[in-house]
Amino acid sequence: MRGNYNSCQTMPANRLNSDRVVLTEEKLSSLRAHIERTGITIPALLKGHKEETKGITYKIVYDWLTGRIKTADANHYETLIKIFEKFPDLNEEYIYVSQEIVKTLQREKARSGVSTKKLFQEAEIIPEGLTAVHAENIVRDLTKKTRHSYLEFLINEWKKQPDSIPRIPITPEILTKMLGEKERTGIGPMALLRDTKKVRPRGLTTSIIDSWLEGRTTSARKDHLDFALDRWQKLPTQRRQDKTNVSSKIPDTV
After folding, report:
1. Closest Cα to residue 212, out of 242, 232, 238?
2. Which of 221, 213, 229 is nearest to 168 (CA)?
3. Cβ proximity of 69 and 45 under 8 Å
4. Backbone angles phi, psi at 68, to 5 degrees
């Protein structure tokens, strides 16, 4: 046992785990230089790259930069450096976000009905460094300065979107008509939409129709209402003997 103990003592006392690095002044200077060069703060970087920086927090990096911690997870440090290296220098590409630009973005967003999140999900090419969070801050007039390329992207992408589908109020007359058709045919929302996945308007669900019939929704997309009413009106009137087999009367297509 004593021999084993002595052999352990021969290991260097300051040896690091293979997955950690010493935060030398050179490494810290490199990180600070990237922050200064890009103008991107650590919180902003982490927020825009959540998947890549999983496990890294602002406090961890703050402790590095203030010298409170002398070593770091090697993967954490290398990940931050690699992300920073993708960003260009903070230069004249940055411009002030004028009120005119903000109003243009807000107007196009409202016209199209496309959220910032959806815009990013459907965009084919997104400028490096631009995130949905930053874009939403621009639209909400919470960011005063950003890259010119970001603004061009947002304006162009929203302008490409078609007008949003209009909503119309569910008047007492429309509600009475729907309830009448439901009663006449004996067909409820679930049976009405059965086998219509390929032909019904996108976004129309049984829960939406339920909310109309129960008066929980005061407006609806016009194409949704038109589809539901048209489908009900094409169904035959329910006969008493058919009450136990109403779903069999529903056609496969509209």
Report:
1. 232
2. 221
3. no
4. -70, -25
